[in-house]
Amino acid sequence: MKPTSQSRAIQTAAIALPLLFVAIAVTQMRIDSRATSSAERQDELILSSPSAIKKLSLGYDSLMADIYWTRAVQYYGSRFAKHGAKFDLLWPLLDITTTLDPNLIVAYRFGAVFLSESGAGGAGRPDLAIELVERGIAANPDDWHLDVDLGFLYYYRLKDYPSAANAFLAGSKKPNAPSWMPVMAARVAQKGGSLETSRLIWAGIYESNKDPKIRERALRELKGLKAAEDESQLNQLADQYQRRFGRRPATMEDLRSTGLLQATPVDPEGFPYVWGLDGQAQLSPASPVVIPQAPQDQPKPKP
Amino acid sequence: MSAPAIEIVGLTKDYTVGFWHNRTRRSLDHLTLQVEDGETLGFLGPNGAGKTTTLKLLTGLIFPTSGTARIRGRSIDDVNMHREIGFLPEQPYFYDYLTARELLDYYARFSNFTKAERGERVGRLLERVGLTSAADIQLRKYSKGMLQRAGIAQAILHDPQVVFLDEPMSGLDPVGRREVRDIIHDLKKQGRTVFFSTHILSDAEMLCDRVAVLAGGKLQGIGASGEVMSLEVHAMDVLFELRPGQDLPPGLAAKVTRIGARCQMEVPESELYAALDRLRAWDARILSVSPVRPTLEDYFLRLVGGASNPAEPRTHAVEVIAP
Amino acid sequence: MSSAPFPVALNTFREAVRDRVLYNLIFFALLLIGAAIFVGQISIGIERLVIINLGLSAISLFGLVMAIFIGVGLVSKEIEKRTLYSLLAKPIRRWEFLVGKYAGLVLTLVVNTAFMTIGLLIALFYVGHPFVASDALIFVAVYFILLELALVTAIALFFSCFSSPMLSTLFTLGIYITGCFAGDIRDFGDFTKSSAMKAITRVIYYLVPNFHNFNAITAASHADSVSLSLVLQNTLYAALYVAVLLVAASAVFSNRNLK
């Protein structure tokens, strides 16, 4: 049967479409390989005024808040994967999100951790983080979670122990506040700056948060702090060893053979500790654990 | 013997109906027919018979489920076939933001005319259909009759050998209809093949060389209209006037309709002279004697009445006229 | 090669003009005039940025609305109004008709955009900014907008072949929005740990038209350069995708029985 013009059209489509789509995919790959360098410059919010956006939302405020919140999370996540990226837009995005929906607690909590963090993991602006969280507390006066964050910020980023204690105390009076909050307040007031207190603070962040990224961050910190504590204890044992034998231990075996250690000590990721050339305990070079700088050594916040 | 202008073989169209598209409705059932070069064929049938379906199949608006057709030797699948046909659709609609002149000029661009030729043709056609004075008014302001005329103009603008007209008289007043009849006559004189569907039977009688009757998607019969007529039994219609004070003569076999002195009666042809003798004896004044021509309508209604009963295929003594 | 698409294209353009589509230029002009007058009061030193951002965004938005709303009617309107009956009886192939309608709307969009670009340049001039070489980026951004509009028009035309205007509008808008976020969809997939999600989002990314490729508005307002190879690649991308849509539309429309 001779091909009709109808069937010819279908045959052409059946052959041409797959070929064209392959060509399209290839072209797209070429475009993408070029675009990564300019992606950095695409950091723009055309509208950055929260009040303007609120007016433009035409009543769909919480929907817009959700969209901006999603963007904030994706923004952080995509930048986190790239090395050397800055997080300049994180504050505006969170600012807009919380202006549109002042009751979106997760946004405040996210900002508390990642706005304040310096280095490769955050925007390095603890001042903005504090502003954000204080706004959140004002808008949500019964939510104790934000007081945990405020206490964390004052303690950990600003080393302002009295303010941190006040935050924990204020939070402990709010409905359903966990019982460890007044304890935390007291600890911070008395023993601010110690490793132990830092661990408790981060444990508080871990316990009270549901966001997986925040929990991951807290866990990392906790492991690092644990490792610091382990190292400190190992160094004490090494001091004992030195007093007995006149030299630092060379391997863990030395400590075990003398009964000072029961088993091979491993860090929270399962890697055994080793001894450095200076005779101090160290993490194994293969271990992913990172010991945070002690709070008193943290760099001053940017003005 | 030249090849037929239109040659349709087993043309069939099924539509799927129903919500799940699982039932089929056969809208045209194995239509086979030939139209000779220069012939005018009338395509008759009730609504839903498949007339418009046939025309749409021939002009490429819909596609056949099976069967073939050739026009002037080219398959209906061939786009170049369209150079030789003109089509006036039923109730045509055109781009209402264009004027008639612009519309014709637009359609003319699909044929290979030079600009000058186009302009000349458009002017000539506008004149032919009587739209010159309205040529530069937008079509949205046209009456139905004017639109119909514009439609005919675009159908014959490029001098096609075969012209398809779907209900060309619809919406026209008697003057308009006469004009369209004249145009069809002209086309005939020019030797073109005309294929038109209508249900105005008198027009079909007057214009067509042959008529084909479609009903229920099937070709019910085809033949010269005169032929169709001649096979019917004739009666005669007698009009007469009684003398003042007179009553009807007794023994008049036929039925008489009477208004005052005027009477009309129908008698079978065989009894005509007997009835006339009676009237003459009665001294009634004979006004007229004429055959009761069974119109195409009777033929049509009989065929169509039978077609609603598909189990019983109609047979009747109408034969296809072989070339 | 047949010339049948040309009269169709010109007639489509003529229809748009007679349907007063180009009157949208008046709204655009008013918008720009307002912006030019007020921008000096609101923000000093970034008048150029605001005018360019606003102007290009408006060009894109107006063009998009036009492309979608006229595009979804390109075929369906002719079927509904039955103007197609007499046209298809002429020696014109179905695909030639589609190409002609498509070209006509693209032509309308080009003309419309050209006028708007002139308006934008006038507004820039009024705001007191002498033209510098980096303003050439405005033309690049406009060109990318045109590529984007050509692609959206093709999508609308495709749906117009078989779907009602309302549904076609929804589908076209849906694909456009998905295409704008195509990059985010891919990033999301890269982000997750599931390799099934990664694969799915990759496939979606390559199938869907990626409108984010064509966004040069930021670059133009910040006078960042755009490489020539990106211009060529975007042109190629748009041309390929338009080809996909026209071929698919032809396949659908060539088999369509007109009621």
What is the fold's blueprint, element by element?
The complex is a heterotrimer of chains A (303), B (323) and C (259).
Chain A: H1 5-39, H2 50-56, H3 61-81, H4 90-100, H5 105-114, H6 126-139, H7 145-157, H8 161-172, H9 180-191, H10 195-208, H11 212-245, H12 252-257, E1 274-275, E2 281-282
Antiparallel strand pairs in A: 1-2
Chain B: E1 6-17, E2 23-35, E3 40-44, H1 51-58, E4 66-71, E5 74-75, E6 85-88, H2 100-108, H3 115-128, H4 144-156, E7 162-166, H5 174-189, E8 193-198, H6 201-207, E9 210-215, E10 218-223, H7 225-230, E11 235-241, E12 255-259, E13 262-268, H8 272-282, E14 285-292, H9 296-307
Parallel strand pairs in B: 3-8, 3-9, 6-7, 7-8
Antiparallel strand pairs in B: 1-2, 1-4, 4-5, 9-10, 11-13, 11-14, 12-13
Helix pairs in contact in B: 2-3
Chain C: H1 5-18, H2 24-42, H3 47-71, H4 76-80, H5 83-88, H6 94-126, H7 136-160, H8 165-180, H9 182-191, H10 195-207, H11 217-221, H12 228-254
Helix pairs in contact in C: 1-6, 2-3, 2-6, 3-6, 3-7, 6-7, 6-12, 7-8, 7-12, 9-10
User: What percent of the residues of chain A sit in helical stretches (DSSP H or I)?
Assistant: 55-70%
Order of helical and strand elements of chain A:
HHHHHHHHHHHHEE
Instruction: Kindly report the oligomeric state of this protein.
Output: heterotrimer
* Largest β-sheet summary of chain A: 2 strands, antiparallel
Report the largest inter-chain contact: A-C, 29 and 36 residues
How many angstroms separate the termini of chain C?
30 Å
CATH class value of the largest domain in chain A: Mainly Alpha
Could you say what the CATH architecture of the largest domain in chain A is? Alpha Horseshoe
Question: What is the global morphology of chain A?
Answer: flat
Helix and strand succession of chain C? Answer: HHHHHHHHHHHH
Domains of chain C (count): 1
Q: Summary?
A:
The complex is a heterotrimer of chains A (303), B (323) and C (259). Chain B folds into two domains: 180 residues, 3-Layer(aba) Sandwich (Rossmann fold), CATH 3.40.50; 58 residues, Alpha-Beta Plaits (2-Layer Sandwich).
